[in-house]
Specification:
Helices cover 34% and strands 25% of the residues. It has helices spanning 3-8, 60-75, 112-119, 161-166, 172-195, 231-240, 250-258, 274-292, 304-313, and strands at residues 23-24, 28-32, 37-42, 47-48, 51-52, 80-81, 83-88, 91-95, 98-99, 102-109, 124-125, 128-129, 139-145, 148-149, 157-158, 198-210, 213-217, 226-230, 246-247. The longest helix is centred in the middle third of the chain and has 24 residues, at 172-195. The radius of gyration is 19 Å and the shape is globular.
Length: 316
Amino acid sequence: MDREEALQHCITETTVASLPDPYRGKVREVYELNEETLGIVVSDRISAFDHIMRQAIPYKGQILNQLAAFGFKKVSDLVDTHVLDVPHANVTIAKKCEPVPVEVVIRACLTGHAWRVYDSGKRELCGVSLPDGMVENQKFEQPILTPATKAKEGHDEDISEQEILDQGIVDEETWSEIREKAFKVFERGQQVAADHRLILVDTKYEFGLHNGDVTLIDEVHTADSSRYFYADEYDERLEKGQRQKQLSKEFLREWLMAHDFQGLEGQTLPDLPDEFRWEVYERYVELFEKLTGQDFEPTPVKNFNQTLEEVFADYI
């Protein structure tokens, strides 16, 4: 693979002449192919602190889409998923679902956002009481659920399960089912990670309703939605108070914080140097290969809009 060419030919936005413009999320572009079916394109965009970086990551979309497909297969006996087909490395054909406007975040360790809240002195997160005396990256006795509301603009906001019910965001029966299935999916993700000497630290799930049935949508156990530690080094690093070696987007957040950016008002989004963009690519490849046991082989992306037209033609 030619590195310079890969850096220059990232998929940052798509158009399909025969279809209306898609809904553009932070990473995914969603085309309505018919009343029942969506064509989801995973771009090479990358976001952190609810901001899309100006520079994209080569082949990130392909890695993310294929890792999500792998993850969905691993949990398909536990929950209905939206996946119908994966006809291209960047594309998933999915059932059209009514999204549940809550991000279901499950945490096995005190890290990332949870640690930043804890380190500020607070001992409650999303209605969950946290014990005194914990250290960064320490495991909870049991995984905890810390939901967030899905914001159309700006930052998602923490919310408790009780507030979800009190505000009528989700009815009690549906939330109970989502809660139960989320913990089962997380347990399966932990098992898959452990088989590859990784620890699934935390993750976010998104659910929708398809003909009234709770359905797992978006992505599952990818580098964008999840954080992984290396199991072999976890205990020693924790005991010594060292940073955990991890596979996740946290290193991008750490890079941004080191460059004075956390998405706060008045801060300037820095540009990602090519050297760092390639490092991010290599991190994504490492997680893909470690979890799936497969080599990552990039699919050419030249004339990608034309390719999309041909791919979607089979489903319109």
